[in-house]
Amino acid sequence: MNVTKPRGAPRLSGVRPAQGLLKTRLPLFAMSATSFAAVPALQQVDLPVSQWMRQHAMPGDLEKVVHLSEAFSHGSGVIAIFLILLQVDLKNRKRLWNLASYVLVVGILANAAKYFLPRLRPNSGIDVSEVQSTWLPVLTGIGRKSYELSFPSGHSATAVALAISLSFLYPRGRWSFATIAVLALSQRIYCGAHYPTDCLAGVGIAVAMCCLWPWPSSAPDQ
After folding, report:
1. % helix, strand, coil for the chain, step of 5
2. Which of 58, 63, 133, 213 would bridge with 128, disulfide CB 3.0–4.6 Å?
3. What is the rounded CA–CA span in Å between residue 206 and residue 162?
4. Residue 110's closest CA among 181, 144, 161, 67?
């Protein structure tokens, strides 16, 4: 006997076949691996790109927007965003706590990695002529302050993680979130805090953690 499913029957949220989940995460694993693998090859553009961006000022309004985008990648800005969402989006509170935890873990991992692979920031005041001179011996970052070290970019990792988490919950805004994240990455290079490959490694950390994170059930249609 065939049973017809009522037209208005609700879908089971969060139930995804293992094969579909695997297909979703495999490209992300590949993207993360590519980001890390590209760091050694792209280091050759670090110095010229960093110097060019710091020597060429952006138009006034664009520069303001780029600097304001740092709030999307800074811990205090991220906290403010989630506190507001927890107040206004009551139906998604459990999901928001999960997503906030993901962003927090990504930020912690990125900042912890700085001590193991220490690199001087572009604005450290040290004149370097070769990109190899920006790196310090492995593990010598232990004992230094996080703001003295450049690789990987914690701000970039946080911005990408926030864009991913917000896109998960509010898919209609995904392009806006992605755009703000790109602006935040640009701000880190423009202000001399990071080299391009620092930001690329931050992206890799956020995407890698995205593949491993226990995401909540699928968000309802917005």
Report:
1. 70, 0, 30
2. 133
3. 9
4. 161
- Looking at per-residue pLDDT, the higher value among 1 and 59 belongs to 59
Query: pLDDT, tens digit, for every residue of 65-105?
Result: 888 888 899 989 999 999 999 999 999 999 999 999 999 99
Rounded to whole angstroms, how far apart are CA atoms 54 and 139?
A: 29
Whether pLDDT at 193 is above 90: no
> Can you read off the two tokens belonging to residue 187?
């701000």
CA distances from 134 to 40, 149, 192 (A): 13, 10, 13
For residue 118, the 8-state DSSP code is -
pTM score above 0.85: no
Q: Which domains does the chain have, with CATH numbers?
A: 29-212 (1.20.144)
pLDDT of residue 1: 47
Report d(CA 29, CA 41) in Å as an integer.
Answer: 19
Nearest-angstrom CA–CA distance, 11 and 14: 9
- Other CB atoms within 10 A of residue 48 CB: 11
Percent of the chain with pLDDT over 90: 39
Query: Peptide bond before 171: cis, by omega within 30 degrees of 0?
Result: no
Cα 210 → chain centroid: 10
CA atoms within 13 A on the CB side of 165: 31
Rounded Cα gap, residues 162 and 18, in angstroms? 25
- pLDDT higher than 70, residue 136: yes
